[in-house]
Amino acid sequence: xxxxxxxxxxxxxxxxxxxxxxxxxxxxxxxxxxxxxxxxxxxxxxxxxxxxxxxxxxxxxxxxxxxxxxxxxxxxxxxxxxxxxxxxxxxxxxxxxxxxxxxxxxxxxxxxxxxxxxxxxxxxxxxxxxxxxxxxxxxxxxxxxxxxxxxxxxxxxxxxxxxxxxxxxxxxxxxxxxxxxxxxxxxxxxxxxxxxxxxxxxxxxxxxxxxxxxxxxxxxxxxxxxxxxxxxxxxxxxxxxxxxxxxxxxxxxxxxxxxxxxxxxxxxxxxxxxxxxxxxxxxxxxxxxxxxxxxxxxxxxxxxxxxxxxxxxxxxxxxxxxxxxxxxxxxxxxxxxxxxxxxxxxxxxxxxxxxxxxxxxxxxxxxxxxxxxxxxxxxxxxxxxxxxxxxxxxxxxxxxxxxxxxxxxxxxxxxxxxxxxxxxxxxxxxxxxxxxxxxxxxxxxxxxxxxxxxxxxxxxxxxxxxxxxxxxxxxxxxxxxxxxxxxxxxxxxxxxxxxxxxxxxxxxxxxxxxxxxxxxxxxxxxxxxxxxxxxxxxxxxxxxxxxxxxxxxxxxxxxxxxxxxxxxxxxxxxxxxxxxxxxxxxxxxxxxxxxxxxxxxxxxxxxxxxxxxxxxxxxxxxxxxxxxxxxxxxxxxxxxxxxxxxxxxxxxxxxxxxxxxxxxxxxxxxxxxxxxxxxxxxxxxxxxxxxxxxxxxxxxxxxxxxxxxxxxxxxxxxxxxxxxxxxxxxxxxxxxxxxxxxxxxxxxxxxxxxxxxxxxxxxxxxxxxxxxxxxxxxxxxxxxxxxxxxxxxxxxxxxxxxxxxxxxxxxxxxxxxxxxxxxxxxxxxxxxxxxxxxxxxxxxxxxxxxxxxxxxxxxxxxxxxxxxxxxxxxxxxxxxxxxxxx
Length: 886
Ligand SMILES: *[C@@H]1O[C@H](CO)[C@@H](O)[C@H](O)[C@H]1NC(C)=O
Ligand SMILES: *[C@@H]1O[C@H](CO)[C@@H](O)[C@H](O)[C@H]1NC(C)=O
Ligand SMILES: *[C@@H]1O[C@H](CO)[C@@H](O)[C@H](O)[C@H]1NC(C)=O
Ligand SMILES: *[C@@H]1O[C@H](CO)[C@@H](O)[C@H](O)[C@H]1NC(C)=O
Ligand SMILES: *[C@@H]1O[C@H](CO)[C@@H](O)[C@H](O)[C@H]1NC(C)=O
Ligand SMILES: *[C@@H]1O[C@H](CO)[C@@H](O)[C@H](O)[C@H]1NC(C)=O
Ligand SMILES: *[C@@H]1O[C@H](CO)[C@@H](O)[C@H](O)[C@H]1NC(C)=O
Fold this sequence. Notes:
CATH topology of the domain at 638-720: Immunoglobulin-like
Strand content: 35-45%
Structural class: mainly beta
Largest sheet: 7 strands, antiparallel
Pfam families: PSI, Sema, TIG
CATH superfamily of the domain at 638-720: Immunoglobulins
Low-confidence stretches: 1-26, 391-395, 411-419, 599-632, 738-750, 874-886
Signal peptide: 1-26
Bound molecules: 2-acetamido-2-deoxy-beta-D-glucopyranose
Radius of gyration: 47 Å
Number of helices: 7
CATH class of the domain at 638-720: Mainly Beta
Family: Belongs to the plexin family.
CATH architecture of the domain at 638-720: Sandwich
Membrane topology: Single-pass membrane protein
Shape: elongated
Protein name: Hepatocyte growth factor receptor-like
Helix content: under 10%
């Protein structure tokens, strides 16, 4: 739009307002940007597709190991297959005569697929990969990788010497319902902490301990337990019917942690999440403690108390170090580990998640402080689901810790039985709930995966959803940041299993699993194309490397645009509307300019320049989409006329004001004396309003007020007495059509006209034909004259008259008069209604004789007219030849 501003007319300079005016929202139509991101964009990312579903991922020294059903793959960094190992299918059954799970059954049908249950790397003794499957009782295979993945030496980790172990099967690591295995080196020994989710079938034999710690045999062909204290199993009554799911495990400092989803305990059937902590240096389960981990969100509701929602079931977690910014904001020490956990709300009394998630985070230091404080206060009890645990008070715990600390490196083995009595196996009964870090943003999504990586000074969280989307968001204080990436990776859910590839490098990436597919998502984002406006493009985190490509009008990375058209600091300015389009001279009109990219220039806000040269002060600047200034006018509104110039004192008359620039400025107000004339319509040249009432007949100035300036009409408006109606004639009408006598009348909306002296008004009664009413119909009528309502008057609708067909009216002389005779039925009303006219005159007199109407023809017609025109209402026009004239 073009706008001309006449600077010489600008008479005054402006008020500078500091306050923000949120009402502006309603003036500028904000672009439909519920999301800064175009959610339909997809990216073509490097990926690997396995023949079978993928369960586990592990990255080591640039090689990606993929554990899938019946397969173990070694992939290069760009996800090209280097090597594959077959791990199944196998034959299993009672008919198998093999002496151990490693030998396999020869010449038998392959009846069992081997699902990968655990994949772990051990580098202390050797460079070795352990892969444990669902077959062979969860016994693992060891891949010695000294010569690289192409030439691994494979051995089965089952020792025949263990066959009669009194501790069960030390080589059976992976349980069939899912397992979490952590290998930790402590004091020159690698310990394998194994936690197996409970199989919900009480008929299955129990080969796997629920939670245990073991080490590799020195012969490196199997595992062994230190003692009966090296494992715990669910209480016999709970086996097979106590859902206990190990979701995630990690090591931090001297501890190892497992995160579980299980029943709250006591009489409750509800599920919750717990943090389990053990000491990585303990060869037995000596120091074991659990604590609930609660993630909540408080929904703000107006007037009501805020409703607290508990996200009870953990879906995925990741322990990571955070970037410098977040570390500062959270007051964390450098290098401190933080647990990021994606929770869902479960169905009632079930661990099954619903599509409602939250993300809570806690530093490991805080977890340990909570454990310490609650144990110190005695908010503990013995474990209800594991038998043989004992309640210990904190003093015993502390004494134990001191002794342990003293003895640890010296005489561990001896010390252990000496102090075994003073170890602890407890559950903390209290918790400090954490709040959803994203304030309900993921309330309608099921998050299934989480990965956290520091990039430059930022901390980027990558979330996967059950719908196969990947969301990336920079975490900062209060979690108010918007995601900068949100795209569909696949139609299948994103698995909680993920791996990182060179995360500290600029081209680092995240490996995600969906079904049979492993995809490589760059940590700095898969691309910029989702950022569909220039502003969101340039405001995206710098590490994404996005810029606006002017040739394609898209957000891209530099290589996808010609360098001269790729901009990273200014968006092209676009103005959509300026309102008002004119403002009164001498007034102070707030002007709103709607558009995009106002002065979005990191170095030099361009529009500011425009404002200053137009003596216009910018006082609001929001979201870069609109702007507002207060400026002096450039138009001169004038009133040339008003109509009507008078009306009843009761008001309500529609007053039309004509002139020019009447619509300039932001607010127009018409006054008549002290009262306001309510605006009805407005344009540059015409304005209508409804006159206010006045107590008595009077004259008032008509004034137009616009943004502080006043314009007056050249004439005043006169209030008269309200109209008075002396009589209404006739009092009858016909059902079928209208009637044109001399009287005043209103039914609903129909036309009336004045006669010359303004004493009579002629109106046409409305037809009731369509209403199927039976005459006579008594009605009331009221006349609204310029907004003034009269009293009510009676009006009777009677049946339409019927004149005999083909019977022409006849005129017969009677004395020195002419009498017009009309034959008909039900024609009384014609007489009563005085609606019969002869050549546009009223009959001198009308009499009814039987079914004949006799009209005395007016004197002047008897001599003048040769032909008489007989008319009853509009619709009946009858002609007749006067006898008299013949
Ligand atoms: C990692 O791989 C490189 C070659 O890609 C190799 O030279 C190096 O020895 C490997 N390191 C380990 C610990 O295997
Ligand atoms: C193994 O898995 C394949 C699909 O991945 C399936 O078709 C087959 O029936 C499975 N075999 C057994 C024995 O379960
Ligand atoms: C990270 O933050 C520090 C301290 O504010 C600053 O000195 C450094 O330049 C920042 N690094 C990057 C890559 O922004
Ligand atoms: C212009 O907007 C400011 C901020 O809302 C307001 O205070 C001021 O009264 C407005 N001026 C006019 C003339 O409407
Ligand atoms: C307007 O109101 C003021 C005070 O309310 C009164 O003094 C004045 O006479 C009024 N003017 C008219 C024209 O009614
Ligand atoms: C018409 O006749 C009547 C009597 O029948 C008489 O009174 C009257 O004056 C006459 N009028 C004219 C205009 O001749
Ligand atoms: C009937 O008379 C009215 C005035 O009473 C006049 O305006 C109209 O033109 C006349 N109509 C005819 C057909 O002469």
